[in-house]
Structure formats: C-alpha cells, structure tokens
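User: Teach me something about this protein's shape.
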Amino acid sequence: AFDALDKEWIGNRDKQTCLACEKPVAFREAIIHHVVEHAVGGATAVENGVLVCGDCHSDRRIMQELTPRFQDYLKSVGQR
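Assistant: First, the predicted structure itself:
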C-alpha cells in the first residue's frame, strides 16, 4: 500500500481529482491506484500511482480499461 506521504504527494500532483471520473476527492477518501497492478509486479511508487475515488476504484474493469490513459498522464507529468 502507498504510505501517507506518497498519498499526499500524488494527491497534490493529481489536484485531488479522480483521474477516472474527474470528480474532486477529499484526501481521506482518496485511493491511490497502482497503474501497473501490484499483483503483477507493479511498484508501490509515485511513478506508478494515480489518485482515484472509491467508486471508480471498485470497478476493476474500468481501472484496467483506463490503464493506457493513466500511463499517458504519468508520462505527461514526467513520472514515467
């Protein structure tokens, strides 16, 4: 799991906005999603995490479909 400092850093980078649905997310409700899934070796690092809301994160299919968009975003902010 991402630690509190990583969550704060990613939250600030992502402007406390869910990168899936683009709605604002309160810090305490934010989830840091592993772009490359942790289960398949994705690192728990800011370069592999994006902020999402709980509703979006609970839909695994949506998270998988959005992987290319998340990867492009990370490249655009200099994270990959």
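Now, about its shape. The first helix runs from residue 4 to 13. The chain has a mean pLDDT of 96. If you'd like, I can walk through any region in more detail.
User: That's plenty for now, thanks!
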